[in-house]
Amino acid sequence: MEFVFTEEQQMMAEMAQGFLADRCTTADLRKLTDSGDTFDADRWAGLVDLGLLGALVPESAGGLGLGRADVIQIATACGAALLPEPLVDVMGVVLPALNDLGQDALVADVLKGAAHVALVHPDAQLVQDAPRGTHILVMTPEAVTLAGAEEVTLTAQPSIDPARALSSVSMDGGAIIAQDAEAFAQVARSGAAGALFAAAQLLGIAQKAIDISVAFACERQQFGKPIGSYQAIKHHLASAQVAVEFARPVLHAAAAPAATAARIAHAKIACGRAADLATRSAVQVHGGMGYTQETDVHLYLKRALALRRIWGSETDHRNRYAARLETSAFGPDTLFAKEA
Amino acid sequence: MDLTYSEQEIAFRAEVRAWMAEHVPEEPLPSFDASREGFDAHRAWEAVLNEGRWGMVTWPEEFGGRGLDLIRWLIFEEEYYAARAPLRVNQNGIFLLGPTLMEFGTEAQKARFLPKMATGEEIWAQAWSEPQAGSDLAAVRAKAVRDGDDYVLSGHKIWSSRAVYADWAFGLFRTDPESERHRGLSLILFDLNSPGVVRQPIHQINGEHGFAELILEDVRVPAENIVGAEGQGWKICMATAGFERGLMLRSPARYQVAAGALARLAHSRGDALDPVLRARVADAAMNAEAYALSIYATASRLEAGGKIGAEASTNKIFWSEMDIALHETALDILGDRAELLPDAPGAQDAGTWLDGYLFALAGPIYAGTNEIQRNIIAERMLGLPRG
After folding, report:
1. C-beta separation of B98 from B68 below 8 A
2. Of A205, B193, B314, B327, which sits most exposed with the smallest number of CB within 10 A?
3. Domains in chain B: ranges and CATH
4. Which residues are listed as membrane-spanning (chain A) (predicted)?
5. Which of A5, A203, A208, A250 is the mutation pick for testing B, counting most B CBs within 10 A?
6. CATH class of A184-334
């Protein structure tokens, strides 16, 4: 039992954090969205070069052959940086699914940056950056269908988050690549991956929202003192930090090999709540300025609002956790139970 | 990152489980805060525990422990609570003063006090707060005046846990009469049976007397009973408080076992369980697991050479708030049985939940109120300015 990251895991996380600190500031993000775009092709090329897209793809298929625990902190860093490009979904959900489904050639093209595959899943029906996509992968519990961009009709569905370019998809063609039990299992696997990596981003957002609020509360003066010296402000931020402290280990346990679906559900709920509390506290601590687009607060609030509800709502996940609680043993010795 | 137990850890769990199955009393012992009889029954249990060398598994062997790591301590606690073994009457000693003496005590003090702490031969009370010094602990007024080879203690301590029946206490006293606030305080160990000590039980919200007022009038204590140097008391007490808020005092298994019992209580209501209550039961179980996972992560970090700092305050907030929510959910499921005393004919298991709820209400107050903990988090973890 060693509940700490290895040096290699820590180094990978720091590498990604360094890249994002250089290339994905909120100023960069504003510039991009102000120009009406949500995808920076240069930054994406940089991420492709780092090899992160294929982190979870086996080495035999051109990936890094890593596990979720190796990259979970990278997803958290992407959340904190509000990265608009879909690295986390492609790395965490799309490529592992294509690999599971035996789509080797397409996997290789995505890894090279020559193809973009957008995913439609029962827990995430709207796709991001679909007009850029060369392929659309549509999962239902009955069938998994792969379609070329020309075989679908996209309808833009604008989001409150300016960095999320969403579309709904209707299929005009495509090939079924998995059915019935295989499709059902794939929906479950991809749904769990989607929830886990959304949770990771939510945790990153939560901590970042606290950090910018602390910085603001040290600067902003009222009644002749920094507002951060008042207990009412302190207690808002301390409570948010408590939520983060007790979401983080749940997330990391949910990234372990063979973590139960219930633990992943737990992580999605805990990280979602932490992000909700932290971003709404950030609005409150920033006061009037918190309700504008002048500070960055609204960017974190809006991303958290979206991520908290896609890949399964809190109610969905709590029902999953409750079902396990009602049908399996629960005690101290089941804390690290594995999925059967 | 490896979240699987090693074979040795699995074997250790089996060893603890087997011992507990054989030794844990079948009938729960009477409360140690309600009668001398209950207190003595728990003292006798501590002796049994110590005979099996399970008193404090992380302590060095010379003081009655096994020198085990923190992961094994967690496994021990899990099996201890799962076996419904008696609560630890000497928790002030083994979880607070014990680690404090190991860090700040002299060799003579360790040899004199730790073994008898481990056996339960000497049960400890904490004597820090005073009527005017609660959250503002630095306002302590009780004095220790040096007189030859002794200190002479006088003053008024309050809310001293276990002090009604305990044998010894560790108290915070002003050794420098000219000093103010945090300076000039010292931590001194004193025998509660010394002449000049008057104990007055305080009736708590749950009808027990888990704490007492101590009136000290010219109580003579050998000067060697000071822990650390004169004037170091504040620093040492803050380290002790860290143990209290952090890892040791509230081990996660306690809440996992309670959440499991809550799930069974909810299950016993079958289809009648309201969806809102079902959600609250799930929340209780999730919170118990989140706390356990966090403590495992902290234990691993400490084993890898890390230190515990202000994040101990996040633990204290989390377990105290979750404990109340968990028990409140149980009372809501019990409905009109919730108010019944344990010996009411219709109470069934309701009394245990009511006891647990009343006990939980103290959580956000003792070991530093949660308001103080939030200040500590804001100032020391987040770096916000002092008020």
Report:
1. no
2. B193
3. 7-89 (no CATH), 124-232 (2.40.110.10), 246-381 (1.20.140.10)
4. none
5. A250
6. mainly alpha
